Amino acid sequence: MMETPMERGLLGKAPKNFLLPYILLILREVPVHGYELVQKLAVFGFQDVDRGNVYRILRQLEKDHYVQSEWNTETAGPAKRLYSLTDAGEAYLRLYAAELERYQSMLDQFFRTYSSILNLYNPFLGVSGGPLTDPANSTKTGRSHHDPGHPESKET
Question: What is the dihedral of CA 103, 105, 110, 115, to 10 degrees?
Fold first, then answer.
């Protein structure tokens, strides 16, 4: 028997490919260490993010010169690596945001089409998506047979 996306836990979670732009966005605001970054990601909906994956992404971003890090020894406890966005990372974030904007436009179109299809086939709504009217009491235009304010109105 095939599992549904809900059973596999795919619905209700942020897609993994959204992790990267959120990391860049967070690092744009303020330098953070890895644990704090994971906490900030949770606020954006990444509650179950794999910490190892976050650190792998950070290492790759640093290798690609989009992120830089330095050891912070000023706080109590062990030294923590602070990550921040570079100028190249800022440019990459802008490109990523433009691409996400394009996807947003595609998603908007999807939901407009989806909603219009639902409205079209909803038995409780008329063909145009408006409330159903009693066919015995309306004309083809949906107006009441007797509309004293309309010149084409007629008494029934």
Answer: 140
CA angle 21/14/89 to nearest 5° reads 5
Over residues 105-122, the pLDDT tens digits come to: 999 999 999 988 888 776
Cα dihedral sign for 12, 14, 15, 16? negative
How far, in Å, CA of 129 to CA of 142, rounded?
A: 13
Q: Please, what's the b/e burial string for 22-59 (b: 16 or more CB within 10 A of its CB; e: otherwise)?
A: bbbebbeeebbbbeebbebbeeeebeebeeeebeebbe
pLDDT tens for residues 59-98? 999 999 999 999 988 888 888 999 999 999 999 999 999 9
